Amino acid sequence: MAYLYLFVAIIAEVIATSSIKASAGFSKLVPSLLVIIGYAISFTLLSLVLKTVPIGIAYASWCGLGIVFVAIVSYFLYGQKLDVVSICGITMIIAGVLIINLFSKTADY
Fold first, then answer.
1. Which partner for 22 in 31, 51, 53, 103 could form a disulfide, CB atoms 3.0-4.6 Å apart?
2. pLDDT digits (tens, 9 = 90+) for 17-29
3. 62 with 93: CB under 8 angstroms?
């Protein structure tokens, strides 16, 4: 259940982070509400995850996958360009999250 909460926390964080640009400095109501609600959901679920998952593992996964998903959303939503170097970096982030979760003894809980 912890990893389901973590996944939902990541998605909520991605929605919130992606909405910051659309909020135009918090001058637009709907995107601003998405930012506030998204971060509230994300941090609440992350705090529940931390009851069972070590903070280093949970936070590395939350941040790493959040970065990857925000980059993908930004590509489609805002036309952000992803060059070869950024794609390589994103691939390394994914590899790091997988290595930590699949092979680290720290992830055993």
1. 31
2. 999 999 999 999 9
3. no
